[in-house]
Amino acid sequence: ETGVTQTPRHLVMGMTNKKSLKCEQHLGHNAMYWYKQSAKKPLELMFVYSLEERVENNSVPSRFSPECPNSSHLFLHLHTLQPEDSALYLCASSQDSTGMNTEAFFGQGTRLTVV
Amino acid sequence: KNQVEQSPQSLIILEGKNCTLQCNYTVSPFSNLRWYKQDTGRGPVSLTIMTFSENTKSNGRYTATLDADTKQSSLHITASQLSDSASYICVAHTGGFKTIFGAGTRLFVKA
């Protein structure tokens, strides 16, 4: 295991539902990330948190709302999603977000299906 | 425009054979380049990392090369095994929070 745990592994939700994805890292890292992986597309960076502060928001729609209560936990709150939001959502952490300590350790991902 | 292009998109080889995956990157400034392996249903796992001053880096049966002049990298897999079946993703880091992912090469190793 990579030391990054995501729950749930699979999620099916309706477009009017509200749900949350959870990520926890046990590596003592300072940076955490949310990525979206759609079929046959490169990973898309959504959000970056460094020392619990959001430092990057890649033009992500407001129906995705991240939360980082501490350096070990990261949430992605979902509401009124669209079918095209169906994808694998990956959480990752790294020692820091700059320089050479940028190896990202990924969780197993949450397979999200919006119906 | 920063981008990473990988080829081929997919590849089928027989167990025991060697293969080479390609990555061309157009990234500025360039900090480092990583190759990740992603098994189906799992998150990517780092295989190698190289800076612009490094030409080659090995990790077991995986050997990555980097040509900073032509902005090309390759990942060579020796004596492939069934467990090598996965997606291999090339990632260029520009510094700061900027990380550019390739779309990946899907490798299938058959018995």
Architecture overview:
The complex is a heterodimer of chains A (115) and B (111). With 115 residues, chain A is mainly β. Chain A has no helices and 11 strands. Chain A has strands spanning 4-7, 10-13, 18-25, 31-37, 44-50, 53-57, 64-70, 73-79, 87-94, 105-106, 110-114. In chain A, β7 (64-70) and β8 form a beta hairpin. With 111 residues, chain B is mainly β. Chain B is 0% helix and 61% strand. Chain B contains no helices and 11 strands. Chain B has strands at residues 3-7, 10-14, 19-26, 32-38, 45-51, 56-59, 62-67, 72-77, 86-95, 98-101, 105-110. In chain B, strands 2, 4, 5, 9, 10 and 11 form a 6-stranded mixed β-sheet that branches. In chain B, strands 1-3-8-7-6 form a 5-stranded antiparallel β-sheet, with no helix packed on it. In chain B, β7 and β8 (72-77) form a beta hairpin. Chain B is globular. The A-B interface holds A 2, 4, 40-45, 48, 55-56, 90, 92, 97-100, 102-109, 111 and B 4, 31-32, 34, 41-46, 49, 51, 89, 93, 95-97, 99-104.
What fraction of the residues of chain B are assigned to beta strands by DSSP? over 45%
Q: What is the tally of helical segments of chain B?
A: 0
Q: Can you count the beta strands of chain B? A: 11
Mean pLDDT of chain A: 90
Overall geometric form of chain A: globular
Computed structural class of chain B = mainly beta
Give the CA-based shape of chain B.
globular
* Distance from first to last alpha carbon of chain A: 31 Å
Could you estimate the helical fraction of the residues of chain B in percent?
A: under 10%
Task: Describe the structure using short key phrases.
heterodimer, A: mainly beta, 56% strand, B: mainly beta, five-stranded antiparallel β-sheet, 11 strands
